[in-house]
Each structure stands twice: as structure tokens, then as C-alpha cells.
Amino acid sequence: MKISVIDQGSGVMFKFAEAIGAIVKGRFIYIPESKGGGYITGFNWGNLRMMIRNYHLNEEVTIERRNELAEGQDDVVIMLSGVFTSASKNKEQLLRERANVIICKHAVSSVMDMPSNTIFESVTIAVSRHYLRSLFGEVKHPVIESILEAKDNFVFETGVSSEIIKTAGEIQNQSIPESFESHYYKLKCEEMLCYVFALLIQREPVPTSNMHIDDIKAIYNIKFLLESHLNESPNIASLAVEARMSEPKLRKLFKQTFGKGVFEYYQSLRMQEAARLLKEKRLTVSEVGYQLGFTNLSHFSRVFEQHLGMKPKKYSMD
């Protein structure tokens, strides 16, 4: 199913709900059983908004979002994916979306793909730059300064910390009186922002470059290629041709976006997949290593321990 929506600054939640025939009850939107299951909910505090998604769909849905923001509206969007834990994730037929955090300007129009039989467990925060400056204006780091001041498009992506997962769990499982909900969620939303920015300032403090929307699309196409070929070591020259960039430009923009070089990012993807195959699919260490392109299992074990902090065999038994 393809859904085309125009976001005029208030988000696409209700337009998506209308398109799939979801049921609206108060601040909750429930996905009908004929379409999947779960819910969407959210809060709006003016300069700060939060949407919570916890659902799955029976068929693939693609949302083409075009933004038409009011004059002077200059929001930043922070999308935290795969941050909840739910009982439904134990259903073998359902996949989990990859855990990550993406920060970009609201003005960046986008295509959002929601594959079928995948659980979306995410928090999306839209916040005005004025509000962000009141929280982080004193932080001196090139990435933070770009988020707060850059006039052109930008995108930064990072992993998910244990603090983010903990706060997401508190958001998901809160049990306070309804009259306190708005204040509670706003505090948790700001806490989540603090943890995201704490991750960003760990990056090497080098100046950032402006990114044209075509550059953003090209870099994310390279990310998709890496994700799709985890058993093949990346070839920078070939990837540069694919991105229609010079090799130095590809290396710079990729590291600027993801905080890691191409090969380092590729290895982290491999180890995330290795952890998933060991825990969720219950494959053996040798099966996982060979599936991900390792010919030397001792090397696979060393790389896995570098990323996960323990040997793959021990990880699979915990």
C-alpha cells in the first residue's frame, strides 16, 4: 500500500491512521486486526512533540511524505527506532526493526518504508530549534552546532544506548495517573533528547559539511548496499561509483552521517546481525560466522568480542 501525505508541521500520524482505517480512541490510534495490530499515540507541547509507535502491519506500507512547513517553522526530527521491548516480539513470524537514532531537519521530505510482519517500536520527537537551543545551546561540538544552526539539510545517525532503552521502557510501562501523563511524558522526552545528544558529542569533533538532498539519498543508498551484502567486504571504489562521488567525499560524508567509517560501520552491522542470528534464530557459532562471510571462525570470534564484549558462544548461552 502506498500513502502520499503532505505534512504541514503537525506530523502524519492521523493521516496514516485514516488511510489504513485505524480506530482513534482518545490519544491512541489502534491498528485494526485486519491490518496488523498495536497502537500509535503521542503528545503535543507546542515546540516539542512526541509520537510513540508500537505496532506491526500485515502488508507493506510506503508513506511518501512531502513537507510544507509554515513560514519560520524550523523543526528538527529525532527518530529512535527499535527502542521498546514487547511481548509480541517473541512471535517468530515477526521481525524487529533495526535499533538506531536518526536526526534530520523536518524540512527533509522522505519516503518511509514499513515492511510487512515487522514490529515498529519507536519514538519520534519533533522539536523546534529554539527549544533545542534552550537545552543544548552551550554545548560546543560541530555536530550539535550543525543541528542547532545549519541552514541546509543535514542527517546524522547513531546507535541506541542502554540509557535510551531504559527510558523508552519507562515511557512504555508508565503507570501514573492520567492527570500527570502529559508532564511525565514531556520530562521523559527531554531525557531522551539528553541521551541522544550525549551520544553525538562522543564523535570526533571535526567540522561538518553541508549535504545536498541528493548526497543524503546517495549515502543512505550505500548504507542499504552494506546492509544487503553483509557477507561481502565493501569496496570503496565501487561504492564511490555507485554514489557518484569521489572516494574522499564518500568517506567524509559517510563518517559525518554515521560517526563511523564505511568498513567500521559494515563490521558493526555484521556483528549486530550475528547477535540476532545467535539469539533469535539459535544458529551455531560456525553457521553464523560462515553465513556472514568469515572463513576463519577464530577471527569471527575476536571481532564479535570486540563489538559485543564477549565470545559468541557465551553470548548465545546467556
Model description:
With 318 residues, the chain is of the alpha+beta class. It is built from twelve helices and twelve strands. Strands 2, 3, 4, 5, 7, 8, 9, 11 and 12 form a nine-stranded mixed β-sheet that branches. The chain has a three-stranded mixed β-sheet with strand order 1-6-10, with helices on one face. α4 runs antiparallel to α5 (181-200) and α7 packs across α8. The model has no long low-confidence stretch (mean pLDDT 88).
Offer a few descriptive terms.
single chain, 318 residues, alpha+beta, 9-stranded mixed beta sheet, 3-stranded mixed beta sheet, 12 helices, 42% helix, globular
Topology:
Layout: E1 2-7, H1 13-20, E2 23-25, E3 28-30, E4 36-44, E5 48-57, E6 61-67, E7 75-81, E8 95-96, E9 100-105, E10 110-114, E11 118-128, H2 129-136, H3 142-149, E12 155-158, H4 162-172, H5 181-200, H6 213-228, H7 236-243, H8 247-258, H9 262-279, H10 285-291, H11 297-308, H12 312-317
Parallel strand pairs: 1-6, 8-11
Antiparallel strand pairs: 2-3, 3-4, 4-5, 5-11, 6-10, 7-9, 7-11, 9-12
Helix pairs in contact: 2-3, 4-5, 7-8, 9-11
